[in-house]
Amino acid sequence: MKWRSTKRSSNVDDRRGQSSGRGFSGGSGLAGMLIPLILKLVSTKKGLIIVAVVGLLMYFSGINPLQFLSGGSTNQIQNTNYKGTASENELAEFSNRVLRSTEDVWNNILNNYQEPKLVLFTNSVSSACGSASSATGPFYCPGDNQLYIDLSFFQEMETKLNAPGDFAQAYVIAHEVGHHIQNLMGTTDKMQQLRGRVSQKEYNQFSVKLELQADFLAGVWAHHAKNMNLIIDDGDLQEALNAAFAIGDDRLQKQSSGRVVPDSFTHGTSAQRMRWFKKGFETGDINQGDTFSSTTL
Ligand SMILES: [Zn+2]
Predict the structure, then answer these.
(1) How far is 12 from 118, CA to CA, in rounded Å?
(2) Residue 285 phi/psi, 5° resolution?
């Protein structure tokens, strides 16, 4: 891919090196010391005025006094010592440019496109969909409109999943953005409503359709990114098809348990994933991606 000369996105939230959790160390110790003092002060009229004035001064200087006492409201702990390896930083930079290309494409296709944020994390992260570890793999959370990726997944694609190449990585981001498009279009909500109303087997079938549509939307992105001369080179398509093949549920299941169990497929087989990505890539037309009413997947 030719990405080095392309534009950067401003929607990347780099949380690498941070661990999920609440507050920062020392906060509660500080509160433990100050609260008895404040209680003692407010019991006298003069003390009450002092507390009120200090509180107001803090407020007007931009510090929330309550937040100060509770140890801050941040739910991420900044690790300023974190330095990624050169290859990891390169992946972060690459992911940024890919996200930007999805913004350019989808802004062009959809009116009032709301751009999603991409959160880069290491080990674990908290999202509106709960906390997740790197083992979850890349995911999209409809609750906060954010994509979450631990960049080590890209290394895993190369070493364990046999899906090397930068376009294979871009495809993963474009697939998650596809889930964002589905969220904007209300498809994700419709899926949520089905939960508990249909059998697990039926729900899994709908889930496959949702995933294949995200693959299709990734293909639509690739189509337009190529036409808009954004980031794609000749030969990139083969890498994406290879990635779609490598991360099909049947192949992943064969790798993990040695046998294939079709009912538990939630992403679609390798052949299905390749087919829908290709359809999106060839047509570039979002109206061709109705995996839900399609009789053949
Ligand atoms: Zn997906």
Answers:
(1) 5
(2) -115, 115
Quote the ligand 1 centre to 49 CA distance (angstroms).
Answer: 57
Q: Tokens for 161, please give them.
A: 């999943």
Q: How far is the CA of 211 from the centre of ligand 1 (A)?
A: 5
Q: What is the pLDDT of residue 36?
A: 63
The reported pTM is 0.76
Residues 174/168, Cβ–Cβ less than 8 Å: no
Q: What pLDDT score does 211 carry?
A: 92
- pLDDT tens profile 99-144: 999 999 999 999 999 999 999 999 999 999 998 888 888 899 999 9
pLDDT of residue 18: 87
Q: How far is the CA of 267 from the centre of ligand 1 (A)?
A: 7
Q: How remote is the CA of residue 228 from the centroid of ligand 1, in Å? A: 25
Residue 140 has phi, psi (to 5 degrees) of -115, 135
Q: Which residues make Cβ contacts (< 8 Å) with residue 237, sequence separation at least 6?
A: 167, 222, 281
Residues in contact with 122: Cβ distance below 8 Å, sequence separation at least 6, in sequence order? 16, 17, 18, 82, 134, 150, 151, 152
Q: What is the band of 5 on the pLDDT scale with cuts at 50, 70, 90? A: confident
- Kindly give the distance from the C-alpha atom of residue 52 to the centroid of ligand 1, in angstroms, as a whole number: 52
Give exposure, 198-214, as e/b (b: 16+ Cβ within 10 Å).
Answer: eeeeebbbbbbbbbbbb
For 17, list phi and psi in degrees, rounded to 5: 85, -5
Q: Structural domain boundaries of the chain?
A: 24-74, 81-288
